[in-house]
Amino acid sequence: MKREELVANIRRKKSFLCVGLDSDIKKIPAHLQQEEDAIFLFNKAIIDATQAYCVAYKPNLAFYESLGAKGWLALEKTVKYIKENYPDQFIIADAKRGDIGNTSQLYARSFFEHLDVDAITVAPYMGEDSVTPFLGYKGKWVILLALTSNKGSHDFQLIEDVNGKRLFENVIEKSSQWASSDEMMYVVGATQGKMFEDIRKVAPNSFLLVPGVGAQGGSLEEVAKYGMIDSCGLLVNSSRGIIFASQGEDFAEAAGREAKKLADQMAQLLG
Amino acid sequence: MKREELVANIRRKKSFLCVGLDSDIKKIPAHLQQEEDAIFLFNKAIIDATQAYCVAYKPNLAFYESLGAKGWLALEKTVKYIKENYPDQFIIADAKRGDIGNTSQLYARSFFEHLDVDAITVAPYMGEDSVTPFLGYKGKWVILLALTSNKGSHDFQLIEDVNGKRLFENVIEKSSQWASSDEMMYVVGATQGKMFEDIRKVAPNSFLLVPGVGAQGGSLEEVAKYGMIDSCGLLVNSSRGIIFASQGEDFAEAAGREAKKLADQMAQLLG
Hints:
2 copies of one chain form a homodimer.
Chain A: H1 3-13, E1 17-21, H2 30-33, H3 38-50, E2 56-59, H4 62-65, H5 69-85, E3 90-97, H6 101-114, E4 119-122, H7 128-131, E5 141-147, H8 153-156, H9 167-175, E6 184-188, H10 195-202, E7 208-210, H11 220-227, E8 234-238, H12 240-243, H13 251-270
Parallel strand pairs in A: 1-2, 1-8, 2-3, 3-4, 4-5, 5-6, 6-7, 7-8
Helix pairs in contact in A: 3-5, 3-13
């Protein structure tokens, strides 16, 4: 999906919500767990109930890999279902991949050709030749980890170099030479609050994928205040807060309700 | 597998070779490509032909994921085959994972419980709580990226902090507070040559997983000269140089021959 389409979807739906499909088999409602196709059935119901309120879905690969081959099948079916029924949804494979060149090329093939998602999250540690194989696919995006939402983000991402530049700033500055803001986004955790001002100094025009609202405690208002730009430039993700809002038979309605709550707040913030 | 077992296997076999099962479907011999189970059949033949000369196997997940669910099945069968037939082999899932705590926990479950390998490679960018969920599994290992074999390793891994400490040194120093050298190793590329001296200053007793000999041009002699310790402390990996030594019907014999060559050199270096 091209940037203009994504921005148009955000304006039309008055939402920049991304729903995280972290569909942990151990947490989905009991009445589904017995089904052969439990994860897919769960995802399908969640998607149908939330699609009106969001512009993106983000399955995190860990939750599918934990089931081995069966999990991959559920993921493939989920992506296919979204593409066939809600083609205006932006699909992000949250995979945090990154390897030497010939290997990253293979990952790119998996995610952009085989699975055919719009974007993949990539870890920057291995540098340019681990990232660039994901670039150059028409309408596809790399979403590079910059300043993540977890406590461990402080361990290395904030290390200052001799010029006082922190690692996440080095990552953004260097990587913005590899790709334009039409094909690269950055992950910045909602828990980082005022740091979004610093992010906007080095990534003034980039879309940011923002996890950490909800279960992780980040503030949507702060993210919008310090991170929003003219073209919105934000995809704010909530996973557990939406998909596990209820673990009873009403799980899908509850998810829809939570997604709508966030979308209503977003509509206000978009003004 | 415990450290003492690994060291004992290295001494008994006089080899610290790891064979990388980067079994790209597009590169395996033509006569196998038509088979339903092509990747597994290829791996099985390679393993049978090389097991006498190596102490470890390292499937890189990218090559399996590129085939979706089918690839995962091939991976599962491969791991099972090694464990049943050659239980003294150390199996490394080269996955370079790393995510927020609850997600890394899921990855740990996938690799250590479901797939049941001995070790997984992990990317350090997200810090402590992205790494520690992989720790504490008895006899299982985290292999953390430190100084990788690719050109892009220079982009971020060598950035000096205000005290002149480079990022890879920060990664090793900090992470060695999270786990002992009985359950954490580091990835250091064979292409880094003399840098192994610097690595040994911060990781004097750790095992190092060393890719980059062969196709990537690293020198085994240099690695041993600057990186070997009393308990060897090295697992040197070759992938393409062994498994694609021939792409004809003699691929397995050719792989065995290349593995033996490296093992013979290693026997000399072990003295």
